[in-house]
Amino acid sequence: MIYIYNDYAGTHSTALAAAYHLNKLPTDRKLTKDEILHVDYFNKLTQKDFGKFFLHGIDEDGHPVYSIGRKRSKFFVPALKQLSTILQERYGQKEKIIFSNTSPTVPLAMTMGGFFSRGIHIDFIGVPLLVIGAKQACDTIQHLVEHTKQTAKSSSEDIVILDNKNFK
Fold first, then answer.
1. Which domain holds residue 149?
2. In the predicted model, what is the mean pLDDT of residues 127-136?
3. H-type helices in 22-122, by residue range?
4. What is the largest CA-CA distance in the chain?
């Protein structure tokens, strides 16, 4: 099984989701500023990283956990699903792939923080907003990750796309 968390930039909510998935963050309390800023890839990717897969690690069940930034494209994940299907059919390999959209978990503070920090490089405004947004979103992101894992285990489909709109 392969997990792929995706959102606009692939560097904020996806990084947090991957860290929660890999048990790298505490789940019994709100995150600290230091914990947030030390999450792998959090606020570190740039525009040149859109569309690239980043491996965050292997989970407790031996499954790789990736993230990717897809910008605003509504076609990106369906195209990846179709490519995955083609490759699975051509090479006879059937491995479950889970695409989980983390965008619905993103609060306004995180959106604005990402714009200021990554978009126009004004970190003294952007980073504090990102921290506020991450603290606001951490519980929702944890629930999304648990939902993603549960759906992955219970689904009979080889390739699953979770839009996660219920996590807004």
1. 2-105+138-167
2. 98
3. 33-37, 76-91, 108-114
4. 51
Residue 101 lies in a domain: yes
Residue 133 lies in a domain: no
Please say whether the beta carbons of 50 and 72 come within 8 A. Answer: no
Q: Does the residue 25 lie in any domain? A: yes
Contact yes or no for 44/107 (Cβ under 8 A)? no
Q: pLDDT value at position 71?
A: 86
Mean pLDDT of 82-111: 92
Q: What is the pLDDT of residues 5-40, one digit of tens each?
A: 999 999 999 999 999 999 999 999 999 999 999 999
Determine, yes or no, domain membership for 53: yes
Distance CA 145, CA 16 (A): 10
Burial class (CB in 10 A: 0-12, 13-18, 19+), 115: middle
Phi/psi at 30 (5° precision): -70, 150
Residue located via tokens 């968390």: 5
**pTM exceeds 0.90, yes or no:** yes
Helix (H) or strand (E) holding 81: helix 76-91
